[in-house]
Amino acid sequence: MKNYEIAKILHEIAIYEDIKGEKFKPRAYEKAALYLGSLNEDLEKIYKKGGNNALTKLPGIGKSIAQKLVEIISTGKSQYYEKLKREIPVDLTTLTSIEGIGPKTVKVLYEELGITNIIF
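RE: above sequence
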């Protein structure tokens, strides 16, 4: 899996955490996603060279996020991400691609209006 694909998963986890009302997790996931998106070296290669310890040495990657990265690298999926998608069935990619719609607006659209996508 490419760095940008992993970064996209972390970015969406950040949005889901924001929708859930978490205070600090969204920023941590977003920071990790931004770093991984700009990383020139392949994350999988970093992991294969140094394991979990190498991941936690990267800026913005703590133990919890490193564990999720290991799972994504190993399986191509994140159970945590899949769980969040089931809990909050919102088409984040489509909704956040609309200019002016961010996590807080998505939260309002979902919780107050029941909107999960732009298809009517």
